[in-house]
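Final report, closing paragraph on structural work. Over the funding period we assembled a curated collection of sequence-structure pairs, and we close with a single example.
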Amino acid sequence: MESTSEKLSSPSMLSRINIRAWVSKVPLLGWLIGALIAVGLEMAIGTPLARALGLSKAPTLFGFLIMLKKPLLIPGAALYLLLIYLLPIGLIARFAAAALNRLAAILADFSTVFSILIHLALLYLALHLWSGLSDYRVLVVKLTLIAVIVTLSLNVINGYMGEFSCSHPGFMALGAYAASVFTVSLFVNDKLFGVAVLPAAIGPFFFPIALFLGGVAAAIGAMVVAIPSFRTRGDYLAIISLAFMFIVKSLIENLEVVGGPRGLGSQPDWANLPTVFVTTVICIWVINNFVRSTLGKALNAVRDNEMAADAMTVNTRRTKFLAFLFAAFWAGVAGGLFAHVLRYVNPSTFGIQKLAEVLAMVYFGGLNSVYGAIVGATSISLLGEALRPLEIFKWIIIPLLLILVMIFRPTGLIAFKEFDARQLIQPKK
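Its predicted structure, as stored:
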């Protein structure tokens, strides 16, 4: 049997240790600054470099779309990815780690809130500049941020409370249509709702109200699922919530006042990147505080043993009721954003396929974890876009990946881990 020293002396083991040690010494501030520099480099020389490498234009999604559409361009796309992104970020992280750690320490000592805001500003600036090079990138970033909101809200029920709910597409539909009816009927000249009541110029100031109403509409609809949850669990609750999703979808399809099966369009273009980004940040902050609060701990008690939680004076009915309403509210907000990003909403959008996507994000990322929800939503969203050229084969690769994850990591990639922003911004030792 090999000794410990022999195992550590193997080249592969040493390389893994060295890479892990190197990465662990780079603060989050370093990765953000590196990403910002890489985006700036792409803005400056991206198009000329792409043409020099035999590409018609700069890759829109890190070269993956080009690689899958035209395999002969794989070397050029891979070299572009290396020169524009990997090499600059790696060099910044390698040679500026010490200075960036000192800067991160200064920011953390000055004010934790100020340091968090600086990190968020750098993240937004990197996303804004990267997405500004293509309308497709803007759409991908917006939809990914909305997916984070939906996944976080579903994780409250399926992860922290331990139920299996299939009703989130229905909540999204209620939020999407409620927010759309509010904005279109008041601020848009539309054939369904007639002449606008208020001038469109003041509409963006009312958009948060539209999102709030979308969340409230979804929370009211959640009562249909929350009340039966007092007496049902597991498969039975899954069937009830699935029935709720189909009821909402069928109801909207038969309401001609909102377009019926044709859908509802003409939504104003108010869901810009800053709005979606800020809403996502607020959602992460609120949900993270919720799951770490007393009510969040009560959810965990209900998940582990509902009878024992009830015996320990936890009001299980109130806890489950509030959790459903809270999760549905954020799903409704996500639905309102979704409708105004696409500027069109159709009841068929909120069916089985949407349910499968959201469940995949939750269980791929990890249950009972804000980290896991963010990772799951981001990775599945980007993977789905990257594999888009494969068309139908995309829905073979992604399920196979999910099966592998469920076999080797049944609880997901990052499960049962608390999210603490203060630890993220701390300098690395």
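The chain has a mean pLDDT of 86. DSSP finds 19 helices and two strands in the chain. We thank the funder for supporting this effort.
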